[in-house]
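Lecture notes, unit on protein representations.

Consider one protein chain, 60 amino acids long.
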Amino acid sequence: MISYLRSNFLSNRLFPKVEDVQTAMQDAWMAFETDLERIASVTKRSWARVQDNSSPEGAL
């Protein structure tokens, strides 16, 4: 996800102030969070699954 944001929104840019970096990061994140297909594809990956070891079944 960070790689996607970096390559699509943050690369090849100069940021004169820290505030400009923060604004660019916020803009990139907001663009990402509106891309529902991309979010769905990330959550389908095996490393993105949550496992609850406290339950008897071992998974949610």
